Amino acid sequence: MNSRHFFLGIVFSTISLWLGSTVEVSAYTRWGNGCTDCHSSFDDANSTKPGNTWPADKHAVHIGNMMNGLCGTCHVSNGDNPLLDESRGETGLPGVGCMGCHGVDPDPSTPNNGWWGAGLRLHHANENVGVDNGGLLCVDCHDDDPPPLGENAVPVYYGGPNVNIFDPCNLDGSENWTSDGLGLDNDGDLAYDAADADCPFFRDGFESGDTSNWSAVVP
Ligand code: HEC
Ligand code: HEC
Ligand code: HEC
Ligand code: HEC
Ligand SMILES: [Ca+2]
Ligand SMILES: [Ca+2]
Ligand SMILES: [Ca+2]
Ligand SMILES: [Ca+2]
C-alpha cells in the first residue's frame, strides 16, 4: 500500500470506528438502554443480589421509602426512561439523577467529568458481572475512571429535603431497604458499609478501640 492509500485507510477506519462508537455509546445513558439487559424492570421486586428481596417493587421503594415522592430526582418528565446523571431536580436537590445516590463526584474541579459512577462501575467489574447484550463491559466505554472516593463519601442527595438516607456507611441503617441488611458498596471494592475500612466503627466517629482521646474524667 502506498502512503496515500495508507492515509486514506486510516481516515476511513477512524471514521467508521467513530460512527460505530457513536451508535454504541448513546446506548447506556439511560436506565432502559443497557442496565435492563441484566437488571429486570425497576417495576418489579427482583434483586440482582443473590438471596436479597425487596419489600415491594424497586420503583415504589425508591419513591416511597428511600424518599418521600421526589419524582424529579430521577425524571426530567415523569414517566421518561431516566437518564443516569440528569433529572429536573427537586427543592434542595440538584438534577443529577441516579448519581445523586449511586455516585459521588470524585473531581468537582472538572465539570461534567462523567466520573460520578466510578464506584458503581468498579463494583460491577469486581463482581465480574460479565457483558451486556451488546457484548460490552462497563470499562469498554468508561476507560478513564479515576479511583472512586471511599465508602464514607456522602452522595449529594443523602440527608437532603425529604430524602430518608443519610449515611453511606449505613451505621444508622438508613441505606438499607431490603432483606439483606446491606446498603450499597459505594466505592466498588466489594466491602459494604461498616465492613469497609473507610468507615468508622461507631456512629460517634471513633475508628478503633484506641481510647486515648476519650475523656477520662468521670465524676
Ligand atoms: C452485565 C450485567 C449487568 C449490567 C449491564 C448492569 N448491571 Fe448492575 N449489577 C449486576 C449484578 C450481577 C449486580 C449484583 C452484584 C452483586 O452481587 O453485588 C449488580 C448490582 C448493581 C447495583 C447494586 C450495587 C451495590 O452496591 O450493591 C446497582 C445500583 C446497579 N447494579 C446498577 C446498574 C446500572 C445503573 C446499570 C446500567 C448503567 C447496570 N447496573 C448494569 C449486573 C449488571
Ligand atoms: C435517594 C437515593 C437513590 C436514588 C435517587 C436512586 N437510588 Fe437506586 N438505590 C438506592 C439505595 C440506597 C439502594 C440500596 C437499597 C438496598 O439494597 O437495601 C438502591 C438500589 C438500587 C438498585 C439495586 C437493585 C437490586 O438489584 O437489589 C438499582 C438497580 C438501583 N438502585 C437503580 C437506580 C436507578 C436506575 C436510579 C435512577 C433512575 C436510582 N437507583 C436512584 C438509593 C437511590
Ligand atoms: C429512583 C428513581 C425514580 C424516582 C424517584 C421516580 N421514578 Fe418513575 N421511573 C424510574 C425508572 C428507572 C423507570 C423505568 C422503569 C422500567 O421500565 O424499568 C420509571 C418509570 C416511570 C413510569 C413509566 C411506567 C413505569 O412504571 O414503568 C412512570 C409513569 C413513572 N416512572 C412515574 C413516576 C412518578 C409519578 C414519580 C414520583 C412520584 C416517579 N416516577 C419517581 C425511576 C424513578
Ligand atoms: C456502550 C458504551 C457504554 C457502556 C458499555 C457503558 N456505558 Fe455508562 N455511559 C456511556 C455514555 C456515553 C455515558 C454518558 C457520557 C458520560 O456521562 O460520560 C455514560 C454514562 C454513565 C453514567 C453517568 C455518568 C457518570 O458520572 O458516571 C453511569 C453511572 C454509567 N454510565 C454507568 C455504567 C455502568 C455501571 C456500566 C456497566 C454496567 C456502563 N455504564 C457501561 C456509555 C457506556
Ligand atoms: Ca473502601
Ligand atoms: Ca439491602
Ligand atoms: Ca465499599
Ligand atoms: Ca454503603
Provide structural commentary.
There is one protein chain. With 219 residues, the protein is mainly α. The chain contains five helices and no strands. The longest helix is centred in the N-terminal third of the chain and has 23 residues, at 3-25. Mean pLDDT is 86; it is low at 1-24. The structure holds heme C (4 copies) and calcium ion (4 copies). The site of one heme C (HEC) has 21 residues, from helix 1, helix 4 and helix 5.
H/E element order: HHHHH
Radius of gyration: 21 Å
Secondary structure: helix percent: 10-25%
Poorly predicted sequence stretches spanning 5 or more consecutive residues: 1-24
What general form does the structure show?
A: globular
- Mean pLDDT across all amino acids: 86
Q: Characterize the biggest β-sheet.
A: none
Class of secondary structure makeup: mainly alpha
Q: Domains counted in the coordinates: how many? A: 1
Given the structure, what is the number of helices?
Answer: 5
The total count of strands amounts to 0
Strand content: under 5%
Bound molecules: heme C, calcium ion
Distance between the termini: 91 Å
